[in-house]
DNA sequence: TAATTTTTGTTCATTAATAAACAAAAGTTG
DNA sequence: CAACTTTTGTTTATTAATGAACAAAAATTA
């Protein structure tokens, strides 16, 4: 990958940090480009060099962080482990815990649904991968089933984050795993 | 004053922070321009746009921070208070306490004497101002006396900083003030 | 000491960020 | 609703920072 100019890295990080900070303070529709540029201590015009508007910024911000999460969950694993759902469940909860400020802001923030939507889409992708590799009980391979599972899964995770993470990552991963087992979701 | 480009502000602050950090870790002559640019996350060449070499950087760094100190000691005061030595002693000790990392690095660091020299010069300037305004007992108005007083004063402050500030700013200011009174240094 | 590596200070062409200005859109106020 | 203020998105000329290259100096190593 061609190395990125360090000015771009710094600018983007400043924008992202400012944005996440502001998202934890007030609702998305109360945040202006002005606010972001002031908080990030950069020229307002500079934001437009990287993002078309604040919706684009929100979009890319979520994409990047969910991408980091996925990476974190799969990076240190072998191909076999990667498809073992429990080995990914635990790091996922841990990652959310470590980035509490970001994800709780995103979820508590009125006026944005794209975070939820992206979580759903990510889950569906994950489920499809498990189906294609035969890890999942084929009987669940219908779009309604997939949607049902994704909604349940994402809803549970979101509930956990929004309610200040009332259980440990270990506990949550184990509980979800138990549910999956009880429903014979995974092939042995 | 004409407003400075915000890029310059950011670059200088990054350089200064990196430099102070490094000064607290190792001796000045073990610090390279390379180290500073890496720590500051800026291009090495950029340093040369603002400083001729690392000695110049050290010099300007000290000047700036001692300037801040002077400012802090005199800013919130009226003209009368400003020349009342006790009203400046206390804030001085407080300022050093608040910027402990910086000043203890400067003093503990082998290979630099300019910090001490600048402190002496600053004290001499202060004493001269007090003489010119008649605040100081005229009998002390000889260069040897001035040098004696400045050395004693600076040496005491440096001792306090180097030995991890064994007394409170209040105590130090009071003790110094007592010494001045005992020697009838100041006119009533 | 000689060979080698690191650091320095400078140059260069290129790119990113800047301040300032502007009209249009959106939001707020009386 | 109209007057007003704020925010937006874009443009422009200018400046600062960048990475890369280089030879010389300094420091390190054998």
TrEMBL record, chains A, B:
Q: Which UniProt keywords apply?
A: DNA-binding, Repressor
**Pfam families under this entry?**
TetR_C_8, TetR_N
Q: Please give the SUPFAM superfamilies that the UniProt record associates with this protein.
A: Homeodomain-like
- Domain called HTH tetR-type: residue spans: 9-69
Gene Ontology MF terms? DNA binding
Q: Which residues bind DNA?
A: 32-51
Q: Which InterPro entries match?
A: Homeodomain-like_sf (IPR009057), HTH-type_Tx_Regulator (IPR050624), HTH_TetR (IPR001647), TetR_C_Firmicutes (IPR039532)
Protein name in UniProt: TetR family transcriptional regulator
Organism annotation: Peribacillus loiseleuriae
């Amino acid at each position: 990958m061609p190395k990125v100019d360090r000015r771009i890295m710094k600018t983007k990080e400043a924008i992202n940090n400012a944005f996440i900070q502001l998202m934890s303070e007030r609702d998305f529709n109360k945040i202006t480009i002005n606010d972001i540029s002031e908080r990030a201590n950069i020229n307002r015009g500079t934001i437009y060099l990287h993002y078309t508007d604040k919706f684009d910024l929100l979009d890319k911000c979520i994409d990047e962080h969910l991408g980091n999460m996925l990476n974190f969950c799969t990076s240190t694993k072998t191909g076999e482990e990667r498809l073992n759902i429990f080995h990914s469940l635990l790091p996922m909860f841990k990652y959310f815990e470590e980035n509490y400020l970001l994800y709780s802001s995103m979820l508590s923030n009125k006026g944005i649904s794209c975070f939820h939507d992206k979580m759903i889409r990510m889950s569906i992708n994950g489920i499809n991968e498990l189906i294609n590799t035969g890890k999942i009980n084929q009987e669940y391979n219908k779009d309604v089933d997939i949607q049902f599972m994704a909604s349940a899964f994402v809803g549970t995770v979101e509930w956990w984050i929004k309610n200040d993470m009332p259980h440990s990552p270990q506990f949550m991963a184990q509980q979800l795993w138990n549910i999956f087992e009880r429903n014979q979701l995974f092939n042995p």
